[in-house]
């Protein structure tokens, strides 16, 4: 195949197509679920009805005119690329960012790749003795992220398409209120959009993880929980009550020295998580809560948020 021609037809840099070609090579892909089984799977993955309808409308049937040869190639090789790193713990872009306004096949290509890998992930979980209920709860982060992306009018997906490869590679597990990310020297904590961050809910999730990982991954040793987030920025304490859930979450961690070059742009991430928008002017953002007012006032004052890292013993 001509990679330059494929890149041109996809509307992406040729370097992105070359990367997929190099990483996926001739490695095995995985089939999508049968169309008849897809609605039930989408429901178990908590995919909202509007997104489920679009996904079904763009389904990669063999005779679908929506699926050009270059799209079919990218879908197949993206599945192979992610599957080849089963068990991997690093963020992994499954392929280039596509122009998603060109229809459901383009908009949801990496969702179809995720669906093809669900059974691969569940088999990996079974091999480690993980209950199917934990598998589905963890994998259902797909639906949550599709809902967020719809709320963000498509601004959220470029980050999410890489984030979700962790779930189908068996690296992220949702245990109660927190997601736990295995790999490296610590268990990394992620905070999904799933209700209040109460101390009791955090304690219960941490206790579950303390039992879960030694049971299912006995060869791995973790001495600490870690987190990298704007939630750990001490500047938040200038605005939030000392007994707020965020303040109490912060107090669990010993922070590492701040390095402005490490991690994503915290100003962007705060807007992403607090307001679910990256393009709304500050003056038009809501000010309903203490946190919303804090974010806006801080940025309007010309100050910046920090992405901070911390840890505490298991």
UniProtKB/TrEMBL annotation:
InterPro entries: GNAT_C, NAT_N. Residues 37-170 form the N-acyltransferase N-terminal domain. It comes from the Bacteria. Gene3D superfamilies: 3.40.630.120. Pfam families: GNAT_C (PF18164), NAT_N (PF18082). It comes from Micromonospora orduensis. This is DUF5596 domain-containing protein. Residues 177-312 form the GNAT-like C-terminal domain.
């Amino acid at each position: 195949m001509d990679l330059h021609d494929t890149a041109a037809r996809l509307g992406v840099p040729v370097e992105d197509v070359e990367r997929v070609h190099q990483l996926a090579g001739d490695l095995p892909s995985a089939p999508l679920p049968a169309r008849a089984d897809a609605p039930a799977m989408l429901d178990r993955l908590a995919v909202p009805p509007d997104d489920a309808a679009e996904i079904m409308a763009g389904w990669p049937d063999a005779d679908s005119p929506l699926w050009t040869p270059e799209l079919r190639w990218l879908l197949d090789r993206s599945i192979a690329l992610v599957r080849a790193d089963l068990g991997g713990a690093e963020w992994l872009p499954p392929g280039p960012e596509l122009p998603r306004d060109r229809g459901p096949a383009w908009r949801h290509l990496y969702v179809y790749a995720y669906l093809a890998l669900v059974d691969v992930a569940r088999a990996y979980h079974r091999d480690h003795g993980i209950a199917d209920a934990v598998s589905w709860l963890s994998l259902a982060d797909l639906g949550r992220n599709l809902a967020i992306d719809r709320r963000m009018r498509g601004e959220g997906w470029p980050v999410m398409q890489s984030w979700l490869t962790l779930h189908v590679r068996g690296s992220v597990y949702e245990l109660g209120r927190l997601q736990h990310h295995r790999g490296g020297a610590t268990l990394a904590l992620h905070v999904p959009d799933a209700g209040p961050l109460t101390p009791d809910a955090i304690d219960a999730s941490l206790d579950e993880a303390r039992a879960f990982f030694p049971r299912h991954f006995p060869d791995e040793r973790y001495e600490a929980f870690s987190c990298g987030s704007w939630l750990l920025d001490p500047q938040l304490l200038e605005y939030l009550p000392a007994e707020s859930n965020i303040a109490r979450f912060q107090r669990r961690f010993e922070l590492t020295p701040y390095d402005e070059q490490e991690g994503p742009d915290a100003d962007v991430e705060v807007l992403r998580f607090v307001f679910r928008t990256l393009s709304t002017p500050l003056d038009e953002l809501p000010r309903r809560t203490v946190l919303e007012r804090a974010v806006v006032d801080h940025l309007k004052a010309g100050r910046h948020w920090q992405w901070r890292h911390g840890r505490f013993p298991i």
